[in-house]
Amino acid sequence: MLLAAIVGWVMVVAFFAPPLRSWQQTAEEWFQVIAAISLLYGCSNLVLHHLKKVSDQESGWGYSVVTIAAFLITSVVGMLKLGVSPAENAARHPWSGAYMEEGSVFWWIYEYAMSPLVSTMFALLAFYVASAAFRAFRAKNTEAIVLLVTAFIVLLGRTYDGTVLTSFLPDWLSGLTIPGMTMTIMSVFNTAGQRAIMIGIALGVAATSLRILLLQDRSYLGSGD
Question: In the predicted model, is pLDDT for residue 224 greater than 70?
Fold first, then answer.
């Protein structure tokens, strides 16, 4: 905790005192080393956790086999740079090219395995969002009615029908058209809500950082005691 507080104060003071920028750079280099060690520890923990599930044949151990296989294959392919062409300025070194070079095995895994899987996961989220919206948009009280009407206007304003329904209004009443109301809702009320959320997040980050600097917080150590 003391080490974290000292490094934190160094980063804060160095931001306002240019002569101490070298201390800040040293702290950032230490961070990169610690991050690399943490990555190794996390990967080892991932493999051991899933190996234990496979060994004990716990529920869903088949998924653990797939996870371990995918992790090992991707790691080997990435570290050996399979299919990577040498860089132009280092033609004698077969591993000198970028590991994400187009046409490499790692690029193929990302492009044709990882990206489709991520797209599938986000596509499945649409069903959960629709279910949550159905429950949230029930007009049980005044707040729910306001939310329902606002959502209906915004959804309708994003379609061609929303433009056609209020196309008879003159230009000086463009703010009362469905697209106009949609723009007002998104640029005024929605922006105000987003700014309030961002201010709350910023205050929370500042409060947590201050607790760490003052040795009053140890939750980042894995315990709130």
Answer: no
